[in-house]
């Protein structure tokens, strides 16, 4: 396995852990809004919390899908030095 692919595998695991935490926060905010008797200010805060973590989870899923698709092509990897711009063909020789 190439070092670049190992790095991406580690990033994939990190995104899975992050996604789990975001879904936990979404559940916490939804549970607080539905089942607790809360003040109007707390309703606003929990609604913002729910919206923020929902958007963050959508972004994380998008990045995770991109990384998994990159890993399916073992001879292509994103150019890390160019901040992910373009593709390079990996040469074993």
Strand order of the largest sheet: 1-2
Total DSSP helices: 2
Give the N-to-C terminal Cα separation.
15 Å
Q: Rough shape?
A: elongated
Determine Rg (CA atoms, Å). Answer: 19 Å
Structural class: mainly alpha
Keywords: Membrane, Transmembrane, Transmembrane helix
Transmembrane segments: 15-35
How does this model look, in words?
The chain crosses the membrane at residues 15-35. Keywords: Membrane, Transmembrane, Transmembrane helix. Helix 1 packs antiparallel against helix 2. The protein has one domain (3-75). Residues 79-87 have low confidence and may be disordered. It has two helices and two strands, in the order H-H-E-E. With 93 residues, it is mostly helical. The two termini are 15 Å apart. It has a two-stranded antiparallel sheet with strand order 1-2. The longest helix is centred in the first third of the chain and has 33 residues, at 3-35. 70% of the residues lie in helices and 6% in strands. It has helices at residues 3-35, 40-71; strands spanning 76-78, 87-89.
Short description:
With 93 residues, the protein is mostly helical. It contains two helices and two strands.
Which key features would you list for this structure?
single chain, 93 residues, 6% strand, mainly alpha, 2 helices, 2 strands
Layout of secondary structure:
Blueprint: H1 3-35, H2 40-71, E1 76-78, E2 87-89
Antiparallel strand pairs: 1-2
Helix pairs in contact: 1-2
Transmembrane segments: 15-35
Keywords: Membrane, Transmembrane, Transmembrane helix
């Amino acid at each position: 396995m190439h070092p670049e692919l190992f790095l991406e595998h580690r990033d994939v695991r990190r995104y899975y852990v992050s996604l789990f935490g975001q879904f936990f926060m979404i559940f916490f905010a939804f549970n607080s809004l539905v089942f607790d008797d809360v003040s109007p200010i707390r309703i606003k805060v929990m609604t913002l919390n729910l919206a923020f973590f929902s958007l963050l989870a959508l972004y994380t899923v998008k990045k995770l899908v991109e990384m998994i698709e990159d890993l399916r092509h073992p001879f292509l990897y994103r150019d890390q030095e160019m901040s992910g711009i373009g593709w390079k063909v990996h040469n074993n020789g």
